[in-house]
């Protein structure tokens, strides 16, 4: 784990670079929603590229950003020159990951089916099964929250969540202080 | 004396357990050396029996053998009979040659070491432990069986701990599997107390444990008593341990999570935290978009302004030497990182300073355009310097850097 301040610096640098690239290319005025989207996307991508594509969530974030059409253009703008290599790596690894994990999932499903059949006659693990179901539900939710989480097993999901939380914190901190600084400037300006 | 114990046990013993024990050892020996059967005390019959590989036959033959050797053995299941002991003592005396033979065999085993010697050693050790009370003939059989159980466990755990290589492992598995079979057979054949059966099942369980614990290669897993020992559940246990370890880290990271026990509650808390962070990002990006409504992408201008004052204030005074200012910031940054206190002021200052440092170079070119809006610059510069001073007064010990800041501030005020 790197030092948090250096992480923030890198994130801010990338974010500003991305925003500059984004705005310099589009001359027309944007609505507030468009601006918001651009800001959010650039922040996310900056966060992901600050991680350098070493973690699943960052790769998934980049891959997701470049998936649907209108955000892809934006993402390409934001990511700029290094976008191609980064994106290619991330999508490739994601596909590879998908395949591997999908096969794992199939295996798991078949195993679990058998286990359920075995354990159904014994009703003594009833409370245990309730707890398990609760955990499973929450794990599912967490998987939907962490980018690329649906392709992870539980151990890597928790690892990625750890990393993701650290980066989200840095992102929130930086964005918050930028926002407050902007507000201050605006107030002084007005 | 100790090493001759199997034979002695057969003479002395009344419980099935002891016979089992002796049998286990005999099978070990027999696996290693087929000459065992040819040894003196059992004659031709036993040699025939022991050369046969099928364990069932072994067990049966062995039982017959025991019946031959020990008189009235079938009568003996009743363990409380005291007079048996004296009889057994007689047998012991008469079977002295057996003992010597047994000793020889053990020596041969450890020498040839076709079986892991470490396994043999605990076995004999256990035998020794068992045989001592038998010789004393004072203790009740129940107590003996208890001790034997202990000895059994000792042996098994030693097997678990000390076996490393795979071939050894497989051998042990095979041996113990066989012994399991035979012991169970004998226990069902002989109409003995439940106690003995329990012990036999116990030994078989522990045998299977010994073979199974080593399955996941070089990950040490300890199955406690009563825990499942097949490879699936062992793997599951390893996985769960890993998860709980990571959960502990998460607990440290997520605020308000360290009071919660239970995985579901912790996951809840983590989910809430991640969601709140993501919502904060959404909200902040919305806010940033809303705060700068006048220009399209005011944000960039804001950052431009934030960046430029640093240059523009230095630019007129120092003129050409932006290199002079940059070193100051470069100097500043390391010192800041050394200070490394992650207070809020630091959090605000560090990125902005980094920003100035990194972006001041490429943007200097377009500096002239921004000169008109000098009032904003001044505001921003004031703001930044204010923050700066705060940060410095609270936490900055480094003097050269502070000097440079003050210099820039002075310039600013000029």
TrEMBL record, chain A:
One Pfam family this sequence matches: IBH1_N
Keyword 4Fe-4S: no
One example of a Gene Ontology biological process annotation: regulation of DNA-templated transcription
Domain named IBH1-like N-terminal: residues: 5-68
Domain of life of the native organism: Eukaryota
Cross-referenced InterPro entries: IBH1-like (IPR044660), IBH1_N (IPR059002)
Keyword terms: Transcription, Transcription regulation
Name this protein carries in UniProt: IBH1-like N-terminal domain-containing protein
TrEMBL record, chain B:
PROSITE patterns: BHLH
Domain BHLH: 227-277
Bias (Basic and acidic residues) ranges: 161-181, 199-218
Low complexity composition bias: residue spans: 182-198
Compartments where found: Nucleus
GO CC term, one of those recorded: nucleus
Ranges that cross the membrane: none
GO molecular function: DNA-binding transcription factor activity; protein dimerization activity
Record keywords, A-Z: Nucleus, Transcription, Transcription regulation
Span list, region Disordered: 161-218
Domain of life, per lineage: Eukaryota
Protein name: BHLH domain-containing protein
């Amino acid at each position: 784990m790197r030092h948090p301040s250096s992480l923030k610096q890198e994130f801010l640098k990338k974010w500003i670079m991305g925003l500059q690239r984004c705005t310099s290319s589009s001359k027309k005025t944007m609505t507030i929603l468009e601006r918001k989207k651009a800001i959010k996307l650039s922040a996310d991508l900056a966060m992901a590229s600050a991680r350098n594509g070493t973690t699943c969530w960052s790769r998934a974030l980049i891959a997701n950003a470049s998936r649907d059409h209108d955000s892809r253009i934006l993402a390409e703008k934001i990511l700029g020159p290094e976008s191609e290599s980064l994106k290619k790596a991330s999508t490739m690894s994601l596909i590879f990951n998908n395949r591997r994990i999908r096969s794992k999932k199939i295996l798991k499903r078949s195993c679990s089916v058998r286990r359920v059949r075995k354990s159904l006659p014994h009703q003594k693990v009833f409370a245990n099964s309730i707890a398990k179901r609760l955990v499973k539900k929450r794990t599912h939710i967490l998987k939907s929250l962490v980018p690329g989480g649906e392709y992870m097993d539980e151990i890597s999901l928790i690892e990625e969540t750890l990393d993701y939380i650290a980066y989200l914190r840095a992102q929130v901190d930086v964005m918050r202080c930028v926002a407050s600084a902007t507000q201050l400037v605006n107030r002084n300006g007005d | 004396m100790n090493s001759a114990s199997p034979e002695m046990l057969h003479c002395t013993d009344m419980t099935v357990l002891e016979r089992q024990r002796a049998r286990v050892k005999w099978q070990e020996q027999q696996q290693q050396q087929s000459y065992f059967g040819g040894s003196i005390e059992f004659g031709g019959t036993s040699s025939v029996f022991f050369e046969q590989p099928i364990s069932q036959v072994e067990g049966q033959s062995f039982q017959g053998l025991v019946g031959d050797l020990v008189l009235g053995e079938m009568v003996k299941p009743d363990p409380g009979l005291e007079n048996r002991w004296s009889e057994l003592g007689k047998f012991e005396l008469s079977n002295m040659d057996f003992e010597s033979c047994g000793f020889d065999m053990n020596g041969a085993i450890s020498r040839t070491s076709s079986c892991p010697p470490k396994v043999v050693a605990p076995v004999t050790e256990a035998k020794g432990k068992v045989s001592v009370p038998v010789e004393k003939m004072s203790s009740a059989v129940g107590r003996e069986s208890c001790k034997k159980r202990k000895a059994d466990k000792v042996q098994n755990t030693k097997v678990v701990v000390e076996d490393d290589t795979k071939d050894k492992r497989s051998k042990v598995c095979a041996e113990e599997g066989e012994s399991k079979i035979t012991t169970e057979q004998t226990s069902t054949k002989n109409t003995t107390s439940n106690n003995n059966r329990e012990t036999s099942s116990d030994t078989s369980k522990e045998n299977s444990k010994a073979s199974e614990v080593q399955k996941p290669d070089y990950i040490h897993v300890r199955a406690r008593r009563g825990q499942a020992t097949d490879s699936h559940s062992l793997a599951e246990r390893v996985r769960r341990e890993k998860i709980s370890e990571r959960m502990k880290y998460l607990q440290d990271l997520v605020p308000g999570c360290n009071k919660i026990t239970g995985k579901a509650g912790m996951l809840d808390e983590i989910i809430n935290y991640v969601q709140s962070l993501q919502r904060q990002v959404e909200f902040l990006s919305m806010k940033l978009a809303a705060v700068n409504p006048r220009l399209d992408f005011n944000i960039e201008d804001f950052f431009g302004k934030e960046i430029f004052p640093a240059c523009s204030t230095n630019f007129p005074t120092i003129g050409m030497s932006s290199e002079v200012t940059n070193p100051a910031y470069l100097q500043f940054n390391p010192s800041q990182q050394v200070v490394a206190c992650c207070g809020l002021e630091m959090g605000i200052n560090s990125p902005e300073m980094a920003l100035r440092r990194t972006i001041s170079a490429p943007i200097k070119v377009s500096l002239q355009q921004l000169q008109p809006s000098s009032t904003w610059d001044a505001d921003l510069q004031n703001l930044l310097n204010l923050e700066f001073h705060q940060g410095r007064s609270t936490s900055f010990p480094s003097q050269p850097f502070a000097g440079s800041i003050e210099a820039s501030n002075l310039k600013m005020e000029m």
